């Protein structure tokens, strides 16, 4: 504990040490209670007051470090930070932790800061003997500030320490008290742990009562009763077993984790929107590319091509080896054509005809000699066939569009993977938030989830309304509903409990 000065006591013979923390609303009398404790331990008297914390009419006399702000302004918490006031009696040390007042005029933000400081001080104490609630006993009704203070405390004090709860009702005696302890419900404080003290000794300067015998008599009686109440309280504190403050630490960890994960959800939902926007853009691009692929897919053209095919025949056909064309019908007379065909159809005759042509004919009409010709039992036949022609420019556009489509498809796949990973992370964060809520409920059955999470859930709902993706917005709204459902359920259970 950074603010616990134990070193000065280690040199002494200390058998026991008690840590007691004080809570209460602004003006309830925590600082005055510390001053009464100072007089109890330092043997102060009504005529010779010992002062640890300066007040409106009295300067500090004991040299104790304090964190009082402006003792002239009663509307604001004077204690600005947690301060430990250490007292020793015989071989026992008492550490009283004074905390900033709650529900002062500086609003909710200051209350949040003050309660966090107070819970941190309780956690750092390691072991707490008691939690003292300081309440103005003259209050006849539950004021707004008192209700606010009690709500903050119920939401901050773990159940394990409720058995060590002590109530000090100030500005009253057991006969004049107006405060109804039923207002603390569902907390129940045993009668033995409730004390009354009229701390009016510090509410006026000595000069106002020393010359007034009646007032002096009243103050002396009230002083005596208050000192007796403090004596009983000290004896009672010794009977309470100290409780480890690990529960405060666990509550803090869970609270911080809930807020951290809610903030992370806010950021990741925004990332989901960005990914969805990119994914939508990619799908639009893919649709355009699909149109291009369809348009460029007709890059083939069919056409009829005429060609000559040699087919077997009984009559021989004369071919030129130079120009690879049939020649006989072109250099023979028309009347001799049929005779020529009959003659060349017979192998032995064909050889004679060929020899004859070779010897007698000089050149063919094709311009090549008879030596460059031969006769074969095939004849040329003209035919047609359908062939496909590829339009290269169209095919190139088709191939380019296909390649782009593959690249876009790969990017879409990566985006879908990223979206799935982000959704998985969001699911894990939501699950952790819910688990932390349940853990908090176990630690502090009266924990106020509504007040704790109202602000950030409101921000989540506001930001969700701004999402443009219907799918992302629907998923975000579902997450918020799930968290709010658990919060409402746990809050209702706390009220009914």
From TrEMBL:
Gene3D superfamilies for this protein: P-loop containing nucleotide triphosphate hydrolases
The UniProt keywords, alphabetically, are: Coiled coil
Coiled coil spans: 391-432
Source species of the chain: Aedes albopictus (Asian tiger mosquito)
Residue intervals of the G domain: 20-138
* InterPro entries, alphabetized: GTP-bd, P-loop_NTPase, Sigma_54_int_dom_ATP-bd_1
Keyword Coiled coil attached: yes
UniProt cross-references to Pfam families, sorted A to Z: MMR_HSR1
Xref: PROSITE patterns: SIGMA54_INTERACT_1
Upper lineage is: Eukaryota, Metazoa, Ecdysozoa, Arthropoda, Hexapoda
> Could you tell me what this protein is called?
G domain-containing protein
CDD domains according to UniProt:
Ras_like_GTPase
């Amino acid at each position: 504990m950074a603010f616990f000065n134990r070193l000065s006591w280690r040199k002494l013979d200390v058998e026991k040490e008690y840590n007691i923390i004080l809570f209460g609303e602004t003006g309830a009398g925590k600082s005055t209670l510390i001053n009464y404790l100072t007089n109890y331990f330092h043997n102060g008297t009504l005529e010779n007051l010992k002062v640890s914390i300066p007040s409106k009419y009295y300067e500090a006399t004991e040299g104790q470090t304090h964190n009082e702000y402006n003792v002239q302004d009663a509307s604001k918490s004077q204690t600005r930070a947690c301060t430990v006031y250490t007292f020793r009696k015989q071989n026992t040390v008492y550490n009283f932790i004074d905390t900033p007042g709650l529900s002062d005029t500086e609003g909710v933000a200051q209350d949040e800061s003050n309660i966090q400081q107070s819970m941190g001080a309780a956690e750092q104490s390691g072991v707490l003997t008691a939690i003292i609630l300081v309440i103005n006993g003259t209050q006849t009704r539950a004021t707004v500030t008192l209700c606010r203070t009690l709500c903050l405390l119920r939401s901050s004090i773990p159940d394990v320490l409720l058995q060590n709860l002590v109530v000090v009702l100030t500005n009253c005696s057991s006969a004049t008290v107006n405060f109804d302890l039923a207002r603390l419900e569902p907390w129940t404080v045993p009668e033995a742990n409730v004390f009354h003290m009229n701390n009016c000794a510090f509410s006026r300067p000595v000069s106002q009562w020393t010359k007034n015998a009646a007032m002096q008599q009243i103050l002396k009686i009230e002083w005596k009763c208050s000192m007796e109440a403090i004596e009983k309280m000290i004896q009672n504190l010794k009977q309470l077993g100290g409780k480890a403050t690990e529960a405060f630490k666990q509550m803090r960890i869970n609270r911080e984790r809930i807020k951290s994960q809610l903030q992370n959800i806010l950021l990741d939902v925004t990332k989901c929107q960005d990914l969805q926007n990119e994914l939508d853009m990619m799908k639009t691009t893919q649709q355009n590319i699909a149109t291009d692929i369809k348009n460029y897919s007709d890059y083939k053209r069919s056409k009829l091509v005429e060609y000559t095919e040699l087919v077997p025949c009984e009559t021989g056909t004369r071919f030129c080896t130079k120009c690879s064309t049939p020649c006989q019908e072109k250099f023979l007379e028309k009347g001799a054509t049929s005779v020529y065909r009959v003659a060349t159809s017979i192998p032995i005759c064909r050889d004679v005809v060929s020899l004859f042509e070779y010897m007698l004919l000089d050149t063919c009409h094709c311009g090549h000699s008879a030596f460059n010709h031969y006769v074969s039992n095939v004849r040329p036949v003209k035919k047609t066939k359908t062939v496909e022609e590829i339009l290269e420019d169209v095919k190139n556009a088709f191939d380019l569009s296909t390649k782009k489509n593959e690249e876009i498809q790969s990017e879409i796949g990566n985006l879908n993977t990223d979206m799935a990973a982000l959704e998985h992370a969001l699911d894990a964060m939501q699950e952790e938030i819910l688990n932390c809520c349940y853990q908090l409920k176990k630690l502090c059955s009266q924990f106020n989830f509504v007040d704790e999470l109202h602000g950030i859930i409101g921000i989540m709902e506001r930001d969700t309304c701004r999402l443009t993706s219907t799918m992302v917005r629907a998923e975000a709204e579902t997450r918020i509903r799930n968290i709010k459902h658990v919060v409402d359920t746990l809050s209702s259970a706390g009220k009914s409990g």
